[in-house]
Structures are given as structure tokens and as C-alpha cells.
Automatic annotation (TrEMBL), chain A:
Keyword Cytoplasm listed: no
Phosphohistidine PTM sites in chain numbering: 74
Protein name: Histidine-containing phosphotransfer protein
Record keywords: Cytokinin signaling pathway, Phosphoprotein, Two-component regulatory system
Annotated compartments: Cytoplasm, Cytosol; Nucleus
Function: Functions as a two-component phosphorelay mediators between cytokinin sensor histidine kinases and response regulators (B-type ARRs). Plays an important role in propagating cytokinin signal transduction.
Major site of localization recorded for this protein: cytoplasm
From TrEMBL, chain B:
Provenance organism: Camelina sativa
GN (gene name): LOC104771127
Protein name: Two-component response regulator ARR22-like
Record has Aminoacyl-tRNA synthetase as a keyword: no
SUPFAM superfamilies in the cross-refs: CheY-like
Keyword entries, A-Z: Phosphoprotein
Database matches in CDD domains: REC_hyHK_CKI1_RcsC-like
PANTHER family tied to this protein: TWO-COMPONENT RESPONSE REGULATOR, TWO-COMPONENT RESPONSE REGULATOR 24
PTM sites of type 4-aspartylphosphate: 65
Length: 145, 135
């Protein structure tokens, strides 16, 4: 089962969902906090759900306050960067570029894609953490090839 | 650097304050500090950092985010320096263009690191600010 967990993790990196920062977080896990990464991920998804909701509401109002949208997305990008959510971070960057260009359609299109990536990552990480818990403690986290 | 090679600075009794409005970053920065044996507190914005010092708390190191509500990192750093706080302050932010970095440094920082913060970057801060000597 450890091997299955390792393969799933490898695929998350290979498919670009996660980057090196996720490994940095896994290396912080210790006996005192064996589930640190899962806890931080839970914090991230809770916080990012709030930001998604804020942005959704701002976009639904129809009037594009690009400064406010950019501010929300700056926070979103910051969190995504901190946990290594690579694809989500990329969409955040695109969204901010559209904000700076005042491109409402670009913002809407990118936000739609961002929500997809966010949802996909959430499901994949939930599955990964569930399997990891079932597999039990492992040795020191190894960097993917 | 493997887990076994990380320095334990607990004996040096260093203290740090994490100043960041983002809960994810707070959690990570606190964990990074704890991993190196550095006791730490956390506040959510620059005003809370200033208030903490007004109430008599003092820290060896402050990890200061730049973008925060109520009082941002630049304002907080300036205020702390005006108050005579001599703690080492390291700016930790995603904003990394030269102009923004310069403005933040000129507010009174001792060092600057781009997020995301990692063990290596934190050790770099500690080394540069003379809290840790690499062997």
C-alpha cells in the first residue's frame, strides 16, 4: 500500500498538480505533527473556498472591480504557492494578468478554469491523504524523480 | 539538508514573531520555526505586531509579511523602528519586484526573502542575521 501511495504522489507531481513546495511541507512532518501536510492542506482548502466565494460574488455583481479582484487573487496565489498547488497558482497568475489588462472576459474564463483545477486538486489530495493514513507512517519523505 | 542535519536552536532560546494575515502561511512559518527549536508567536497584521510590542513583548526575530489588512508590513516595520524596536525583521512576501523590495527594505528590514518560505530560506535568514553559524 505504501507503494500505491508513493505512485499516487508521484503522479500528482508528474501531472503538474503539485510542485517542490509540497515536498518541503512533507519534510516538516515529525512525530509531534505526523499529519502536518494534511492539516495545512485542509486550512488551504477552507481559506481558498472563502476566496472563491468572494470572487464569485464580485463577478456576479457584474461590475468588475479589478483592484478588488486582483487583491483576492493575490491572497489566493499566495496560499496556493505556499502549499505547492502548481496548476492553481498558474491560473491565479493568469487571472491577475487579465485584471491588470482590464479584461473581464479573460477573468471569467480563467476563473472557471481555476475552479476546475482547485476542485480536481482537492479530490486528488483527499484521496492521497486517505490512502496515506491507511498505509500508516512511512520513512522520511523522498523527493519524486 | 536532511531532517537529521537540521540545527536545533532551542538552547539559544531564540524567539520569533510571525506576522501574516494568511492562515496557511502562519501555520507553515510557525512549523518551520518550531522545527528549528525557535519559540514563536503569531499575529494577523501589522497593528497586532505593534500592539504586541506595546504590551511589552519582545522577539529576537520578526517574520513580516507585506500585504496585510489594517496595517501592512511596510507601515508596521516603520512603526516598530520608530518605537525603538531593534529586533531583526525579515520581510517575507510574494511581492518581489525591485521597487517593492526596496520600499520594504527601506522601511527598516534586516533581510528579505521571497515566499514560499522554506527551511533553507529560513536558515539563510538566521545565518545572515547572525543567529546561526553554518558548520
Amino acid at each position: 500500500m505504501q507503494r500505491q501511495v508513493a505512485l499516487i504522489k508521484q503522479s500528482l507531481f508528474d501531472q503538474g498538480y503539485l510542485d517542490e513546495q509540497f515536498m518541503e511541507l512533507e519534510e516538516l512532518q515529525d512525530d509531534a505533527n505526523p499529519n502536518f501536510v494534511e492539516e495545512v492542506s485542509a486550512l488551504y482548502f477552507k481559506d481558498s473556498a472563502r476566496l472563491i466565494n468572494n470572487i464569485d460574488q464580485a463577478l456576479e455583481r457584474g461590475s468588475f472591480d479589478f483592484n478588488r479582484l486582483d487583491s483576492y487573487m493575490h491572497q489566493f496565489k499566495g496560499s496556493s504557492t505556499s502549499i505547492g498547488a502548481s496548476k492553481v497558482k498558474a491560473e491565479c497568475t493568469k487571472f491577475r494578468e487579465y485584471c491588470r489588462a482590464g479584461n473581464a472576459e479573460g477573468c471569467l474564463r480563467t476563473f472557471h478554469q481555476l475552479k476546475k483545477e482547485h476542485s480536481t486538486l482537492r479530490k486528488k489530495l483527499e484521496h492521497y491523504f486517505q490512502l496515506a493514513r491507511q498505509a500508516g507512517p512511512k520513512e522520511t519523505a523522498r523527493r519524486p524523480k | 539538508m536532511t531532517r537529521e542535519e537540521l540545527p536545533n536552536l532551542a538552547e539559544s532560546k531564540l524567539t520569533a514573531l510571525v506576522v501574516d494575515d494568511n492562515f496557511v502561511n502562519q501555520s507553515i512559518h510557525q512549523k518551520l520555526l518550531a522545527r528549528l527549536g525557535i519559540q514563536n508567536d503569531v499575529v494577523c497584521n501589522g497593528k497586532e505586531a505593534v500592539d504586541a510590542h506595546c504590551s511589552g513583548r519582545n522577539y529576537d526575530l520578526i517574520l513580516m509579511d507585506m500585504d496585510m489588512p489594517i496595517m501592512n508590513g511596510i507601515q508596521a516595520t516603520k512603526r516598530l523602528r520608530e518605537m525603538g524596536i531593534e529586533s531583526k525583521i525579515a520581510g517575507v512576501t510574494t511581492r518581489a519586484n525591485e521597487g517593492e523590495k526596496k520600499e520594504f527594505m527601506e522601511a527598516g528590514l534586516n533581510d528579505f526573502q521571497e515566499k514560499p518560505l522554506t527551511i533553507s530560506k529560513l536558515l539563510s535568514i538566521l545565518h545572515k542575521l547572525d543567529f546561526y553559524v553554518q558548520t
